[in-house]
Design a protein that fits this description.
alpha/beta; Rossmann fold; seven-stranded mixed β-sheet; 7 strands; binds guanosine-5'-diphosphate; binds magnesium ion
């Protein structure tokens, strides 16, 4: 259960990064719904800044949950076509620094849009996570945009596309909270196992 959530700080480079004992980080394409996901999971609409315009968050944002029990980390989104090449390289370095230096990182929550097949950037990210042996789950979000049956069909397609077991793929909506209980249970398991 999440009873309390507060913004801690942002980091734009390695020296500004934090090192919490238990971190869960959210990654995904720009505009896929990462900030909305964090807000809905925490029951706080104003916690993470959401935006209709893609490519707005260029920082790593840390949120302390339940007065420091664990930390949710909002990572900057990738794959936004309109940013410059330099900006993309900067993004890549920031994420790589985060993934390689966050020793408390317990799990990556990778968000994809349930309506679309994962992009090459998504697949690259997953290869990277396997390479560095970082545990992850995939969350197909914006499920409110589809009927239940279409959502289930898309879930299977996304699982196939990523060669992913169905247990590591969740369907979610920040708008109607579909999947919220399952995600909260998964978070509790991650936190509990990390404390053992
Ligand atoms: N219908 C619907 N819209 C969503 C959902 N999650 C995010 N959005 C919308 O998608 C846009 C981008 O969301 P945001 O959380 O800022 O994405 P981020 O760039 O990945 O952090 C905003 O207009 C949100 O209102 C969802 O589950 N359902
Ligand atoms: Mg965001």
């Amino acid at each position: 259960m999440i009873t309390n959530a507060e913004f801690v700080t942002s980091a734009s480079n390695l020296t500004q990064m934090k090192n919490y004992a238990i971190e869960i980080a959210v990654v995904g394409k720009s505009n896929v719904g990462k900030s909305s996901f964090i807000n809905s999971i925490c029951n706080n609409k104003n916690l993470a800044r959401t935006s209709k315009e893609p490519g707005r968050t260029r920082l790593i944002n840390y949120f302390s949950i339940n007065n420091g029990e664990f930390c949710l980390v909002d990572l900057p989104g990738y794959g936004y076509a309109k940013v410059s090449k330099e900006e993309k390289i900067k993004w890549g370095k920031l994420i790589e620094n985060y993934l390689q230096n966050s020793h408390g990182l317990k799990c990556i929550f990778m968000l994809v849009d349930i309506r679309h097949d994962p992009t090459e950037d998504d697949k690259l990210m997953i290869r990277y996570l396997y390479h560095y042996r970082i545990p992850f789950i995939v969350i197909a979000t914006k499920s409110d945009k589809l009927s239940r049956s279409a959502g289930l069909r898309r879930k299977n397609q996304i699982a196939n596309c990523l060669a992913l077991g169905i247990d590591n793929l969740y369907v979610y909506s920040s708008q109607n909270r579909q999947g919220k209980e399952e995600i909260l249970t998964r978070i509790s398991d991650i936190v509990r196992n990390s404390q053992l």
